[in-house]
Amino acid sequence: MTDFTIIDGIAQIHDPKLYETWLDREDYLAAVSASPYPEVAAIKRLLIDFQVALAKMVRAKAVEENVVSVMTQFVSDDYIQHDPNALGNGRDNLIEYFRKAPLDRGTAPPVVNVTVEGELGYVMFRHPMPDPLVPGQTYDWYILTVFRVRGGKLVEHWSAFQKMMAPILPKPSA
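-> structure tokens emitted (174 positions)
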């Protein structure tokens, strides 16, 4: 038995260790980005590679050293941001947002599905969370985010997060 399977386009993780190793597993990344259509596979891989680059940068605690090169590689200069907790539009604001990223949250949850429809790519992550109603058990929290891709770059982003009273990432001082 393998540690994951793809069922109806969604990765089913059978071995909990994969939650810690997915970033470094080319077989997993290739399986999640697979498509019979090369243009769809390319967009799926771009979205996955962006998530992997961000997660590896945070895991290595090397945000300051790598954030500009990662964002320049993947994100357009005129990036439009619809996350209500972010610092606003533009790649420079996204760079500043990630410079304030907490570095002690563990490995990012794995991408378990990417669906592409035209310019839009929907990325779904799966993260087991402690069940607040059943001590000692977990439930699966699915996180969804959407990007618009043009010319091989991310040009727009939507998230499912609500605006927080005190954002996870503080706004920079003036």
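The domain at 4-159 is CATH 3.10.450.50 (Nuclear Transport Factor 2; Chain: A,).
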